[in-house]
Write a structure and sequence with these properties.
This protein has about 475 residues and is mainly beta. The protein has 2 domains: about 5-250, Trypsin-like serine proteases (Thrombin, subunit H, Beta Barrel); about 270-480, Trypsin-like serine proteases (Thrombin, subunit H, Beta Barrel), CATH 2.40.10.10. About 5% of the residues lie in helices and about 40% in strands. The chain is elongated and about 80 Å long.
Length: about 475
């Protein structure tokens, strides 16, 4: 499977696939001086202190180019939109300081499926950059052409601060024959790097440039897209192939409308692994430390059948989104208040901030219902992991839902098309505030009562399987927790 070279952020979408990080610009060295037209796309949801997510290159005074999977990696997966607190930092060797910082007004992705149909995105800047844009190629560079690659990619295999380089790295390599990059689209991509991968772009180098010399100037031949692993060259989007599209967007000839965005207000993410929501109960006070609701199977160690975990000290990062899904607030859990997968697949965490503190930051706070949903009732599933808000009907209340040795009682079979990234998403009544459950599982392949294939057990013991059915757990038992 082709892997894009971008570390997952809070806004993980279906287009982004995981990748094992390797050394930053393998075979490279720290750049002795900046490239005025080249820089970093920086976002508040980056796992890095410096905010770096992808490389960018200035192609016009108010336009920068990056990889399409970098622009498509936004909370709702929009192809065209207006991001919140995205900036580019140009003309520095330090991703965290120096150079010129300009806010991003808008992003335009070349296609809805960038990895397979043209991995290219443009960033409209809120003001013209002071530096001169890079030149685009007049022809596709030939195999064997010398290329300089740049990036702030990871320096080791863990997503830890020490693995994020502060200084820009560069390396000199060549354009390889297309056959050296398995799965490459030869007409619109370039294969760049050493044949054994010893000199190549790596994770978080996405969108960074491959530069070739044209007399005394640099020309941008391509931008980092993805590869097949550490031991191969990397696929770059061919700038010459897409030059006309870039020119048409920059001149305004192409000006697509913004992608409609669902209301994701309050959708939270637990460590980027599960969806969640901040909830209050009937016993809640504004001075209380807030509670975060998700699935029991989203805890670091799943409760055993019949087990309930209570008041376990546990620190996990949490992000909470605004209406468009962009970062509204950050928090950390302090304790796992309650977690079980028996009877119901739910967990409550206590956060390090009070309801009053989160309210002051504009965070939407849901309330736990003291009843279950009813068959035929309309609900929404609000999912940070899926980047979507699904509206549907509760199709049935299932007496017993069995999966991999666990049994949940009075579970919901619902019609909302949430996927696995939606685990822990709140199931909300039509008032948009009241939570009656959390999305928990899907029967993927039609198997009976196995992992990711829950089965329904009637009161008389009859077992029924509905392939493709989605299920949620009732939260009624949590309505009076504090």
């Amino acid at each position: 499977m082709r892997k894009v070279l971008l570390t997952a952020t809070v806004a993980l979408t279906a287009v982004i696939t995981s990748v094992t990080p390797a050394l930053a610009i393998r075979g490279g060295v720290e750049a002795p001086q900046p490239y005025p037209f080249s820089g970093s796309l920086q976002r508040p949801d980056s796992p890095r202190e410096d905010g770096h997510t992808c490389g960018v290159t200035l192609v016009a005074p108010t336009w920068a180019v990056t990889a399409g999977h970098c622009t498509k990696n936004n909370p709702s997966g929009a192809t065209v939109g207006r991001p919140k607190n995205w900036t580019v930092r140009l003309g520095t060797t330090d991703a965290g300081s120096g150079g010129e910082v300009i806010a991003v007004e808008r992003f335009i992705t070349h296609t809805d499926n960038p990895v397979h149909e043209g991995d290219l995105g443009l960033l409209k800047l809120k003001k013209p950059a002071k530096t001169k844009p890079v030149a685009l190629p007049s022809a596709r560079p030939a195999e064997g052409t010398q290329v300089r690659i740049l990036g702030w990619g990871m320096t080791c295999h863990q997503r830890l601060p020490e693995c994020y380089p502060k200084k820009l790295r560069e390396a000199d390599t060549v354009i390889q024959p297309a056959a050296a990059c398995e799965g490459m689209y030869a007409n619109r991509e370039l294969c760049i790097g050493a044949l054994d991968g010893s000199v190549a772009a790596t994770n978080m180098d996405s969108g960074g440039p491959g530069l070739v010399r044209d007399g005394d100037r640099w020309v941008m031949a391509g931008i980092v897209s993805g590869g097949q692993g550490d031991n191969t060259p990397v696929m770059y989007t061919d700038m010459h192939y897409f030059k006309s599209w870039i020119d048409d967007v920059v001149t305004g000839k192409i000006n697509p409308p913004d992608t409609p965005v669902p209301n994701l207000e309050g959708a939270a993410s637990l460590a980027g692994v599960c969806s969640a929501s901040v909830v209050k109960t009937s016993a809640t006070k504004s001075s209380d430390h807030a509670l975060l609701l998700t699935n029991g199977h989203c805890t670091p160690e799943r409760p055993a059948p019949g087990q309930t975990l209570r008041d376990v000290p546990l620190a996990v990062p949490v992000t909470i989104g605004d209406r468009q899904g962009y970062l509204q607030a950050k928090a950390n859990t302090t304790h796992l208040v309650h977690a079980t997968m028996t009877g119901t697949d739910t967990a409550l965490y206590r956060l390090d901030q009070t309801y009053a503190q989160l309210h002051a930051k504009g965070v939407k706070i849901f309330k736990l219902a003291d009843r279950s949903a009813r068959p035929g009732e309309r609900v929404d599933v609000i999912s940070s992991g899926n980047g979507d808000r699904f509206s549907c009907t509760v199709e049935a209340v299932v007496p017993h839902l069995r999966e991999e040795g666990y049994t949940q009682d009075n579970a919901y079979r619902h019609g909302c098309k949430a996927s696995h990234g939606g685990s822990g998403s709140p199931i909300v009544l039509r008032d948009g505030v009241t939570v009656v459950g959390v999305h928990s599982s899907t029967n993927d392949s039609g198997e009976q009562c196995t992992a990711n294939n829950p089965c329904e057990v009637a009161a008389d013991g009859t077992v029924t399987v509905h392939q493709g059915a989605r299920y949620g757990s009732s939260t009624q038992s949590l309505a009076h927790e504090r």
